[in-house]
Amino acid sequence: MPQPHIFPSFAGEFFSRISYMEKAVLITIGDEILSGNTVDTNSNFIASELKNIGIKVVQIFTISDEIDTIKNTLSEAFQLGDLVITTGGLGPTRDDKTKKALAEFFNDEIALDEVTFNHLKGYMERRGRADILERNKEQAFVPTKSIVFQNHFGTAPCMMMELDGKLSYSLPGVPYEVKPLIKDQIIPYLQEKFNLNYIHSRIVSVVGIPESILADTIEDWELALPENMSLSYLPVGTRVKLRITASGDNEEALKQQTEDKIQKLLPLIKDHVIAVSEDKIENILAEILTERKLTISTAESCTGGELAKMITSVSGSSKYFLGGMVAYATEKKIKILNVSRETVDQFTVVSEQVAQEMAKGCQELFDTHISLSTTGVAGPGKGEDGKDIGTVFYTIRIKDQEVTSKLYMPHLERVDFMDFVSQKVIQDLVGLLISQ
Amino acid sequence: MPQPHIFPSFAGEFFSRISYMEKAVLITIGDEILSGNTVDTNSNFIASELKNIGIKVVQIFTISDEIDTIKNTLSEAFQLGDLVITTGGLGPTRDDKTKKALAEFFNDEIALDEVTFNHLKGYMERRGRADILERNKEQAFVPTKSIVFQNHFGTAPCMMMELDGKLSYSLPGVPYEVKPLIKDQIIPYLQEKFNLNYIHSRIVSVVGIPESILADTIEDWELALPENMSLSYLPVGTRVKLRITASGDNEEALKQQTEDKIQKLLPLIKDHVIAVSEDKIENILAEILTERKLTISTAESCTGGELAKMITSVSGSSKYFLGGMVAYATEKKIKILNVSRETVDQFTVVSEQVAQEMAKGCQELFDTHISLSTTGVAGPGKGEDGKDIGTVFYTIRIKDQEVTSKLYMPHLERVDFMDFVSQKVIQDLVGLLISQ
Predict the structure, then answer these.
(1) What's the whole-number mean pLDDT along residues A110-114?
(2) Phi and psi at residue B379, in whole multiples of 5°?
(3) Rounded to a whole number, what is the distance in angstroms from the first to the last CA of chain A?
């Protein structure tokens, strides 16, 4: 674990005064998120990493890069949590005012830190930029009461400050810089310094039952959960994820407690459970395919590569995913996937029959046990064949058996449509494999 | 435009008291985001839709589903903005307390609304669920001082309330339900009722110049921007997007003003500008390919379908994207893309030579002007050929010319790696096409 650089004026004795670290508040600074230009993925990553070490994010503020707003929000955040993490607002450009706000809030001054400056110089030199501009040098100015965690993938360092026995970390906003700072430096640091509570959580994936009926079915079970456990409903497409979370100081006891409760839950909804434990449907699929030594391939039209991407986003997927084809143009479906021209002429390209032939051709091309195909119109605008947008046929072929289904989702935006259909296809496949 | 249902006790005269609508605050309610389980995409969508009609999101709160927290946040939000939009916390399950908090905050009561109940009944019946549970019926209970916008894609209606001449809308949290409510109902409603300011914004995409040098280069230009205009730096991979935003009451004047400023900016950075106006790199590519009538295909290994997905996420991409191949297994690269076994044996599968042969084979298979190929190891875990993770070779082939490049990004997580590489490949292609 890389060691942070402790600035000489840092009040080093404060750790003895902090006995717990349970609640975190995140502050996202800058115009990118507020303007709708960028989706905030940092908060998601940080919240999930903190959860793993037993720290719960209780609130997230997304604010503009203005000194007064930053100071007011810091003050509110320190009231709500033991740990405050800010991201953004540390770039070298004019619209970043975070460091000034930090100094004012902590009643501190900004000074050039030689260690940080040398780190920065090395970072720039390795990138062939020996001429450090004044603007870059500014990045090595930090509050004098901070502990500095060097940034190995960018120019803005992470600064840790302390207030009344609570901690704040200020990070840059670029996700590629945030992730290693959190994962390799901040998390290990918190684990080393504090006795943290454990949080254990498991996910039960349920399909084929509406959320309201599900809630009625398991109401008595939910009401009987003890104080330290909670249940959340997380709908994803047509699947509902039930997340059971427990917190406490004994990891083994928590695991046992959660397992006991899940064993009581399963009989209540047994026909609808497709997986326990794994969260994402592509991970559930990975478990099944790996265990059964099955291979898979994809032939996509309207999902445009998203289906292959979902499957390959799982580490180790090269063991079962042999390949995929995005056959966008009709001629390519005919040439490469061996779809017959007569079938296209007779039934149009968005049809049950073409989906079936695509799956068959795909299975032969890649020589896999399973093949998946999609053909449809993601929209907007009518498809070339005159069918309405939002229609998709998909075939799941397992060895010599196949199931073809149709979806009609005209209200979805293009990318949502591609995501939704891919989710649904993999979910159906998981359902089929489990029932086999 | 669908008309909302006005509840009898709604104080209908308040519109005459509202003269402006400029600042919005978003509140995201529920555990999904805070726990790191779900990325908040609703805020992004809503902020961007509001920006189009001249309303600026000034702050976003993400809070837990607790009555006091919701009430306190509503109160803070009404101080910061003229318009408050909440999402989430309206599901039929136990963890949703938003409606109760709304009633308490607005000093109102919840009552069954017959119109909403009938809408709900119709919605359930169309889905073949004639037996409405008590729990579903609860969805038709709304505050008596609200205006109800019916939800056509889910069971929780949207409720509009008024406080001291400011408005709040409470929506469910499911993105598929949020989008049509915002786009088809709330935005047209706001446009009809208020005289809104226009916001005009344009993006200049810049590559090959670090953010700090860019900032120095255009500093004088930026300082000379008038009050109603602002500049933001939005880094995406190795590209920097400069967003120039102007607001005012005359749309035409704003457009002219922005255009004038951009014409003064371009000569300062001319060698680095790859596009003006379009935001996403795949849209920039779409413009160029459509204009020049060029077709494109992809052969992917480590990007696993993301490259094809990025290209096909643009509406109208079927005009130029003929198809893609995800050749994950080495044997499939040989069999389908015609990569020679000798090349693989001599240079390994992650090599410049294999990238080149993949691009060539892909161009022939799909018969396109342009082909793109990627071969690398996304990790984690060493690649089968022994090369370190994070290495990728990619070839861009335009007619009979080709460029092959290498990237080494070992610090990126798997999905980030796939995204980053795909962004970079398309960005390089755009650069090459522009310089031709």
Answers:
(1) 90
(2) 70, -175
(3) 47
Choose among B44, B95, B133: nearest Cβ to A233: B95
Residues of chain B with CATH 3.40.980.10: 5-193
Please answer yes or no on whether B57 and A36 come within 8 Å at the CB atom.
yes
- Our CA-based measurement puts residue A13 at a distance from the nearest CA of chain B, in whole angstroms, of 31
B305 and A317 within 8 Å at the Cβ level: the answer is no
CATH placement of domain B281-435 = 3.90.950.20
Contact A288, A275 (CB under 8 A): no
**Domain A5-193: which CATH class?**
alpha beta
- Compare CB distances from B313 to A44, A211, A304 and report the shortest one's residue: A304
Tokens of B245: 């935003």
Preceding amide of B380 cis, omega within 30: yes
Secondary structure (3-state) at A373: strand
Distance from CA of A42 to the nearest CA of B (A): 9
* Contact residues for A368 (Cβ-Cβ < 8 A; gap 6+): A295, A296, A297, A322, A362
Alpha carbon distance B362, B374 (integer Å): 11
Q: What is the pLDDT of residue A210?
A: 83
DSSP secondary structure letters along B353-399: HHHHHHHHHHHHHHT-SEEEEEEE---SS--TTSPPTTEEEEEEEET
d(CA B338, CA B345): 14
Q: Where in chain B is the domain with CATH 3.30.70.2860?
A: 198-276
Q: Complex ipTM, two decimals?
A: 0.76
Q: Is B279 exposed, middle or buried (0-12, 13-18, 19+ CB in 10 A)?
A: middle
Chain B CA closest to residue A231: B95
**Tens-digit pLDDT profile for residues A307-360:** 999 999 998 899 999 999 998 899 999 999 999 999 999 999 999 999 999 999
* A222 touches B at CB < 8 Å: yes
Name every residue whose Cβ is closer than 8 Å to that of residue B91 and which is 6 or more positions away in sequence: A211, A233, A235, B156, B172, B173
Closest alpha carbon within chain A to B137: A212
Residue of A nearest to B321 (CA): A328
**Is the Cβ of A36 closer than 8 Å to some Cβ of chain B?**
yes
Query: In which residue ranges of chain A is CATH 3.90.950.20 found?
Result: 281-435
**CATH top-level class for B198-276?**
alpha beta
pLDDT digits (tens, 9 = 90+) for B155-176: 899 999 988 888 999 999 989 8
From the list B93, B216, B326, the residue facing A233 with the nearest CB is B93
Q: Which of residues 407-436 of A touch B (CB under 8 A)?
A: 411-416, 418, 420
Q: Does A322 touch chain B (CB under 8 A)?
A: yes
Asked if A361 has any chain B CB less than 8 Å from its own CB, the reply is no
Structural tokens at position B296 = 């494109």
C-alpha B137/C-alpha B112 separation (Å) is 8
Of A49, A84, A50, A55, nearest to A70 (Cα)?
Answer: A84
- Give, in order, the Cα–Cα distances in Å from A387 to each of A338, A347, A377, A391, B211: 23, 11, 8, 8, 47
Interface of B with A in 235-254 (CB under 8 A): 235, 241, 243, 245
As a whole number, mean pLDDT of residues B243-262 equals 88
Span B267-276, pLDDT tens digits = 999 888 888 8
Whole-number Cα distances in Å, B8 to A210, A343, A413, B185: 32, 57, 35, 20
Q: Amino acid letter at A415? A: V
Interface test with A, best of B242, B328, B330 (most A CBs within 10 A): B328
Interchain proximity B328–A317, CB inside 8 Å: yes
What's the pLDDT band for B126 if we cut at 50, 70, 90?
A: confident
pLDDT for res A294? 96
Q: Is the peptide bond before A380 cis (omega within 30 degrees of 0)?
A: yes
Going across the sheet that includes B321-326, the strands are A401-408, A391-398, A370-376, A296-300, A321-326, B321-326, B296-300, B370-376, B391-398, B401-408
